[in-house]
Amino acid sequence: MKLDKVLKRFTTGLLCVAMVSSMAACGKSPEVKEKSEVENVTLTGFISFGGNSSATQKATWFTDILKEKLGITLNLQDDVGTGAGQIMQSLLASGELPDIVGFNNPKDAKNAASAGLLLNLNEYKDQLPNIFENEIYDSARNYQQDLTGGDEKGLYIMPTKIGTQDDINFNPQLRWDVYKKVGKPEIKTLEDYIPVLKEMQEAYPETEEGKKVYGISLFSGWDNNNMALATYISTLYGVDSRGISPFTEAPSDGNGEVISILDDNSNYKRALDFFYKANQEGLVDPDSITQKWDNVLDKYNNGQILFSPWEWAAAGYNTTDRTNVDDFKGYQSVWAEDFTVPILQDNLIGENWSLGISSACKNTEAALKFLNYFYSYECVDLLYNGPEGGVWDVDQDGFRYVTDEGWDILDNGKDLAEGGKILDAYNIINSSAMTSQTVNTETKDQTMSYSYWDATLNRNRDANKLVSDWKADHDGAVNMFLYSKENNKNLIKTCSAFTMMSTPPDDLQTPIAQIADVVKTYSWKMVFAKDQGEYDTLWGEMKTKADGLGLEKIMDWGTKEFANALDKEAKYK
């Protein structure tokens, strides 16, 4: 796509307002307590890590806050019809970046800095107190200066999602009501889900609305260099299948051997086996090959899928009219006994996603004000919790809690009175400056997100009849994560080295792309193979082709680079 066409994809002013408003609502720094001296400034932007320009149309509550406090609107560049990576490369090649730019990898950020396309934030410390005066960002700043700052160690970008974490992304779910209906059979391994799901599907072949029910529903929209859903399933056995190179997996805690996902004993292969066998039993949604994530989410919301590797994917079905009645329905955690689910790593250096300001920005003051606000406690607070009075309030002792009206909004997916859902604002950038569990020193040392407030955890102990029934089987635990922690099983802490990996060198990019095409194509073919013979043949062909395209060289690079990353982790802890 040519640059002129790319640039035409910037959204309208309304999108801009929402985005920046979203950010504006974010911080508690004194300089934004009063109406900004910067008025009616429009900043252009492109976020390559999933920033959603359409979210600005929805997050009117955040838009209004941003406009009122900062006087800034953000005009996001749309990436509809092409990939974010392609747009970023077009922008870098042109030498013309939008005012606010979000990088999804350190290599692009370093190239932009080396080419003089980004402001050195070190020269604007007075205008960025939220970045330079908050010690929570110290390790992240130092790391980024070493990584992308060149010989002068300038600070050209700031990572996102900085802080502490003690939670999980993967929390396998089953339709608890249907699982209970078939007698809650024991599930010792991943493979044991298949006969259980078969039994559940036979007991519940269609929804009350007459829609077909499937054990598993797949989609390819998140595939990059491999079959993403296979790596997500393999993650349940305590390995990282994406952080070292596209074709490696290693124990999430960094202790153990790095192997290829195309090894016969890999967890990636085990995940493919699982999907293939599930399909042979008629459990896999036949729309899986062509459908998108939105289609899958609709099916979860309709109760058409019996299994999910994520708690949040199935959450939309768990409305109070289903979960808090005598004949309750909904999804709850059901883990295989041998799972080893990774605990999220502490992000003291942040993620590989980062924000910077173009050196060609004509409204530098406004851009700095925006960036400073994004890294404020107030902005992070708003992105996770919404405005005060929307869903939460403060008790007589100064502690925050979600109100009854707030739980109605959250549990049932309702809009705020100010317009839009809470997460609409977060989705504009698709990230925040801090992790959800980082302590907010401005609010009685409570976590940034309401999800971890004591009042929330206490409320969740008896949230509804579905949860109460699940808890009766799990010693009264609040959730599966805390149950696993209390029983010291099924969990493994993820090390930060995976986020410190360098981007593969240029000479590996072509073979990586070629092997990626092979792995994705063959992985999907294997899932839907007609029989075991065809499945085994496809596996062998995939390995042979990948080897012929240079897999060994990529593995060698990844193994050595991960060893270096482990050394970096020790340095920046």
Report what the structure shows:
The chain is an alpha+beta fold and 573 residues long. It is built from 25 helices and 17 strands. The chain has a five-stranded mixed beta sheet. A three-stranded antiparallel beta sheet has the order 9-5-10. A hairpin with a 5-residue loop joins strand 13 (392-394) and strand 14. Helix 2 (13-24) crosses helix 4, helix 2 (13-24) packs across helix 19 and helix 23 (506-527) runs antiparallel to helix 24.
Sketch the major β-sheet. 5 strands, mixed
Q: Write the CATH fold name of the largest domain.
A: D-Maltodextrin-Binding Protein, domain 2
The gyration radius over C-alpha positions equals 24 Å
Mean pLDDT: 88
Could you tell me the number of beta strands?
Answer: 17
Helix/strand class? alpha+beta
Q: How many separate helices?
A: 25
CATH architecture assignment of the largest domain: 3-Layer(aba) Sandwich
User: Given the C-alpha coordinates, what overall shape results?
Assistant: globular
Q: How are strands sequenced across the largest beta sheet? A: 2-1-3-12-4
The amount of beta strand, in percent, is 5-15%
Distance between the terminal alpha carbons, to the nearest Å?
A: 42 Å
